[in-house]
Amino acid sequence: MFATARSASAKSQIDNNLRYLKQIKQRNTEEIYGDDNVCLFQITKPDKFLKFDFVDYSREWEHLREPTIEDRDLLKAQVADLRTEGKTVREVAEFLGISKAKVQRLLEAIK
After folding, report:
1. Helix, strand, coil % (nearest 5) of the chain?
2. Domain residues of the chain, as ranges?
3. What is the pLDDT of residue 2?
4. Is the pTM value of this prediction over 0.70?
5. What is the pLDDT at residue 1?
6. Do residues 44 and 53 touch, judged by C-beta distance below 8 A?
7. Can you give the pLDDT at residue 12?
8. Rounded to an integer, what distance in angstroms lies between the CA atom of residue 22 and that of residue 45?
């Protein structure tokens, strides 16, 4: 039987040339590259071709952007505006790409 796992890559907020690779789903194998152990690569372009050079292992949270107060206030305003337009909680969540629970929490914070 073959071990199957899916992975995803994302841009690091530390440097535009850094990408990290994370295991997001595994069926019949253990998780090796999860939140606490992602593979970090640097994008280089030798000889006109893009290349991923392994740099190190890292933690995913070190590469995520921390939302600012302005980001949160903007999201609250967007949720409030969409609700006043008559959109349901589900429609607001789908439109903004967030969970329904987050929409509910933001609506409670607005009150």
Report:
1. 40, 30, 35
2. 5-63, 69-110
3. 53
4. no
5. 47
6. yes
7. 86
8. 23
